[in-house]
Design brief:
With about 80 residues, the chain is mostly helical. The chain has one domain (about 5-70): Orthogonal Bundle (Arc Repressor Mutant, subunit A), CATH 1.10.10. The chain is built from four helices and two strands. A hairpin with a 5-residue loop joins strand 1 (about 50-55) and strand 2 (about 60).
Length: about 80
């Protein structure tokens, strides 16, 4: 998936929200960044192994998700 700068920033903010335990904010940020495609982006994050959904409706980042977040928020990072 190709993303512009704003979409990458929103995705980084959304993944940070998951890391902080705020899944509702994650969804809001995905919607702001990707519009109607936000659910597809969320499913892709799970399918690609960047996050896992929990039974209580929340989610957790995987180690790959943490690396992706680092790459999105620290472009000079060597992660990934």
């Amino acid at each position: 998936m190709t993303m512009d700068t704003t979409e990458r920033e929103r995705l980084g903010e959304a993944l940070a929200a998951v890391r902080e335990g705020d899944y509702r904010r994650f969804e809001d940020l995905l919607w702001l960044g990707f519009g109607d495609a936000w659910t597809r982006v969320g499913m892709m994050l799970v399918e690609k192994g960047y996050m896992v959904r929990r039974g209580d409706g929340d989610a957790d980042l995987t180690s790959s998700g943490c690396e992706l977040l680092d790459r999105l928020t620290n472009p000079m990072s060597k992660a990934g």
